[in-house]
Amino acid sequence: MLLRIEKYVLSSCFAFLLPIVFVFQSEIVLCADKNLIPDIRILIDSTESMQKSDPKNLRISGLRLLVKLLPNGAKAGVWLFSDTILPLIPHGIVDDDWRIEALQIVDDVDIENSGQRANIPKALAKALHDTSDLDSRYRIGVILLTDGGLEVSSSPIDNAVASTKLLNDLEINFPDNNVPIHTIGLKQGADKRLLRNLAEKTSGLFEQSDKPEELAKIYLKVLDILENRVFVTLNSNRFLIDESVHEFTLVVFGPDDGSAIEIVSPDGASYSKDRVSNSSAWFENKGYIIFTSSSPVAGYWSIKSDKFYQGRITVVSDLNIETTGFPNSIPVASEREFLVWVNFKKTKITDPEVLSSLDLELTTIADLANSPKILDIQKMTPLESGEFRVVVPSFQKAGRYKLTLKLAGKNFSRVIPYYVDVFALTDSDIDTRSNLGRIPSFILQSNTIILVFNILLIFLAIFLLFIKRITQQRKERWQEMLSSDNRLN
Predict the structure, then answer these.
(1) What pLDDT is stored for residue 437 in this prediction?
(2) Residue 156 and residue 297 in one domain
(3) Per-position DSSP letters for 329-348, written without gaps between them
């Protein structure tokens, strides 16, 4: 009897607890970094209005920088949309053949801007036709560029209905697809409200630009977001390359005025358009220069020029920062955090002595009318697991923010930038320090589950001891009765 009761109780408890364990494990998986490969899908408006908005076709030629910097093994594709959807660069795996074909298309294509309407729902459906059967190794992201808005009919009512349906469909399907849509409004005539909503509902980024010349930088920013890229800082035209770096790529943005520029290595070697080595490469185009060096000399490199340039340096290195990532669109006052850890040769560093020698800080910057303002600087200490928990300030005002995560050691530094659009739910003032000590909801849920586990186990133990005690008492009474009967006989 006792065994049957205990088996029933235990099996019931396991049946109840196993789903909780599954939820708890799933929650951990959702917070884990997957190191996904970027899969970038670009939708470009080709309606008649683009003839005036982008007469030089810079929305296409700007793709050259992106094509050259896409990593081998990534996926990419480009579609043109108006009344119809036409593939421009075939969607596929990036390799030498794909890159050659893509660059040839970018250089030779002459878009006929003949479409009357921008069928954005159809364009998204075409680009995301395979989202029900995705390869789990890839992180998909969409770039949508238009100088107008959604237009599927000559009727404003039809267009409003189509816009509402598109946003509702995204809200329903986004949790399953997890595909950010990064939107670009070209010129002031773009439907900013629709484009911003598309980005917000999918944790994407919204960009507004009146200059087609800026599109190459915007394309590149999205690639950096999808690839979760790590950078080396550029200070006063100098940057530090440490001994763990196998290769670096420097992209320099500057005015197209023919100014001479050289890259100087720590050993004094000088590189330019007409002077490269067997282990380096130089590409120059209007507005930017790409310089790549394999097996670079460790030390401080510099950009030699009469002018100060904007630049970005990415590295292939044995030493890397990895994170669980951060959404590019969040509502006002939402509480967020993410985890950061350091890998050396693909192994997470957990040695407390090594970790204590590292400085990790998060700088929060508000872009107030294009006038950056530092709002907060946090310094982190590692957890026992070897990870750093980064608590992001609870933004109390809508706008564009930049989070800069900087890791520095004795002879190296790494930076990961995050761009965040905070959208308003209610009007409020900036207060970045409130709620910093609070832990985000998913962590609270995890602790609650653990607490429930412990309480259930305690009640289970008490219940089993109670049942065992009652059964033992009954057994003792039966034994006494049997003993009495035997004495009477």
Answers:
(1) 33
(2) no
(3) EEETT--EEEEEEEEETTEE
Distance CA 445, CA 453 (A): 12
Residue type at 245 in one-letter notation:
V
User: Tens digit of pLDDT for each residue in 238-284?
Assistant: 999 999 999 999 999 876 666 778 999 999 999 998 899 999 999 98
User: Lowest-confidence range among 19-28, 46-55, 456-465, 468-477?
Assistant: 19-28
Q: Among all chains, which residue has been given the structure tokens 């939708």?
A: 43
Residues 100 and 152 in one domain: yes
Say yes or no to pLDDT of 470 above 80: no
DSSP H stretches of helix in 178-229: 192-201, 215-227
Dihedral pair phi/psi, residue 245, rounded to 5°: -85, 125
Tell whether 166 is covered by a domain.
yes
What is the length of the chain?
Answer: 489
Burial of 310 (0-12, 13-18, 19+ CB in 10 A): exposed
Fill in the DSSP letter of residue 382: B
d(CA 448, CA 442): 10
Question: Same domain for 65 and 201?
Answer: yes
Can you tell me the distance from the alpha carbon of 376 to that of 441, in angstroms, rounded to the nearest whole number? 22
SS3 86: strand
195: which 2 tokens?
């484009």
Residues facing residue 389 across a β-bridge: 339
pLDDT at 310: 81
Question: What phi and psi, each to the nearest 5 degrees, are found at residue 471?
Answer: -65, -40
* Burial tier of 308 (Cβ tally within 10 Å: 0-12, 13-18, 19+): exposed
DSSP letter (8 states) at residue 485: H
Give the tokens for residue 129.
């036709």
